[in-house]
């Protein structure tokens, strides 16, 4: 094992504690000690907020890797009534995360968790949210401000911040100019690249899982490992070569 400890935060493309293996699991196999603040179907608000909280809790972290997701995602604190009405009937997002999160319900504190509704609009309330309340320009500006502030915090605390786009984000020209050196794939986000790859066309999608397949996860791991020590890069390259030979 190498003495490489990193903090990662992202959506399902990154989240390492699911049935589908991701690039996080590959880095762990390569010897990295990974603190994973990611979550399935979570928003950019979750991704950045959780990363910042973990940074404050772990002052030995010196490398942070963020995978941004698309706009228009929404986390909802749930009590039993919301679980029954919103979560259980949803055809895809019928689960909660962070079950130790304390929710105030009827003047009591209970552990129910968070519903990562993602872009689901199955329930009428989400349809109304998208129609009347969702404001992509404001959300992109909020994300831009948080990235700039997080980058400043990392610089002040000698932390290496590596940011990747999981999906396309419509930045303004001013935002793009400021972020193009921070976001390493601002013009080639992970998911669009995946959709145009043989990894996608050769993969069986009958399970309706949008998380990129393992072959493409090796591509992400190879890219991300370039920001990590050479022994990690060499291990990832070795694993990728072995995997490619089996295809």
Please give a quick description of this structure.
With 247 residues, the chain is α/β, with parallel strands linked by helices. The protein has 10 helices and 8 strands. The mean pLDDT is 93.
How would you portray this structure in words?
With about 250 residues, the protein is an alpha/beta fold. About 45% of the residues lie in helices and about 15% in strands. It contains ten helices and eight strands. The strands form three sheets. Strands 2-1-3-8 form a four-stranded parallel beta sheet. The longest helix has 21 residues, at about 135-155. The protein is globular and about 50 Å long. The two termini are about 30 Å apart.
Instruction: Give the CATH superfamily of the largest domain.
Output: SGNH hydrolase
**Kindly, what is the distance between the CA atoms of the first and last residues, rounded to a whole number of angstroms?**
28 Å
Q: What is the overall shape?
A: globular
* Rg estimate, integer Å: 19 Å
Core attributes:
43% helix, alpha/beta, Rossmann fold, 247 residues, single chain, two-stranded antiparallel ribbon, 8 strands, 10 helices, four-stranded parallel sheet, globular, 2 domains
What layout of secondary structure does this protein have?
Blueprint: E1 4-9, H1 23-29, E2 32-36, H2 44-57, E3 63-68, E4 75-77, H3 80-87, E5 102-105, E6 108-111, E7 114-116, H4 124-133, H5 136-156, E8 160-165, H6 173-179, H7 190-195, H8 198-201, H9 214-225, H10 230-246
Parallel strand pairs: 1-2, 1-3, 3-8
Antiparallel strand pairs: 4-7, 5-6
